Amino acid sequence: METNIPRHIAIIPDGNRRWAKKRGLSSIFGHRKGAKTAEEIINAAMNLGVEYVTLWGCSVDNITKRDDKEVGFLFRVFEKYFKRLLADKKIYKNEVRVEMLGKWRNYFPKSGIAVMDELIKKTKKHSKRHMTFLMAYSGVDEMVSAVRSISSGKPEDIDADTIKQNLFTKDLPPVDLVIRTGGEPHWSSGFMMWDVRDAQLYFTKTLWPAFSVKELKEAIGSYSATERRLGK
Asked: What is the pLDDT, as a whole number, of residue 155?
């Protein structure tokens, strides 16, 4: 049977801190390993033919309600990872567009913002693959922002397209497959609430740092094997 590759995969990478705790390590080791896993999984997904990969890097709560030392380390992990992306020749050879969505400009340090801005600028004309990071992101913030943007219009002129064009994710297609790791099968902060309306959900007990390319393929295989009736 031919594998039906999802066009757009969104990932909620839960479990960094629990992975570290199980090993008697500080949470920073979980975040470091989680960043490495993200790099491996995103690259593997694109190599398998996934056109859009969206990964939730952090929520606003992650960087406002946690220990300052942990948050500072998390910022450094992100900055280091994005610097590697800037220097990665495959990003340019494969024409991967990198985008950041959320309120990251309000919370990230200047050095990190500068790297993220440069990465966005240098890849903005790419169109073969799309790598999107949700940074200081909340689906509730996204929807409130959209409603505020269209609130001055005539109600009769507002339709589904109007809402979509006012979301942070206006340039992204609907999500086909959501992967949530960490063993807690619930939703968080209205994650991409508009775009996941018809998505297939894949929940796994695997903590994010331990999530493997093998399990990614299993998730895609599960998606491929499921008949998508979409109400028909």
From this structure: 87
Q: What is the mean pLDDT of each run of 10 residues along the chain (232 residues)?
A: 84 96 94 96 96 96 92 95 95 97 97 98 97 97 95 88 96 98 92 96 97 98 81 56
8 Å CB contact between 41 and 206:
no
Looking only at the bridges linking them, the beta strands covering 8-12 and 52-59 are: parallel
Count of the separate structural domains present in the chain: 1
Q: CA 113, CA 226: separation in Å to the nearest integer?
A: 40
Q: Which tokens go with 84?
A: 């590697």
CATH number at residue 166: 3.40.1180.10
pLDDT of residue 228: 67
196 belongs to a structural domain: yes
Report the SS3 class of residue 98.
strand
Q: How many CA atoms lie within 13 A of 97 on its CB side?
A: 12
Q: Distance between CA atoms of 94 and 167, rounded to whole angstroms?
A: 27
Closest-CA residue to 104 (of 142, 65, 69, 58): 58
Q: Which are the catalytic amino acids?
A: 14, 62
Domain contains 213 = yes
Give the SS3 label for residue 34.
helix
- Within 10 angstroms of residue 203's Cβ, the number of other Cβ atoms is 17
Q: Which of 197, 199, 132 is nearest to 169 (CA)?
A: 132
**Against a cut of 0.70, is the pTM above it?**
yes
Has residue 2 been placed in a domain?
A: no
Task: Check: CB of residue 75 under 8 Å from CB of residue 113.
Answer: no
Residue 56's domain comprises 8-225
pLDDT score at 153: 78
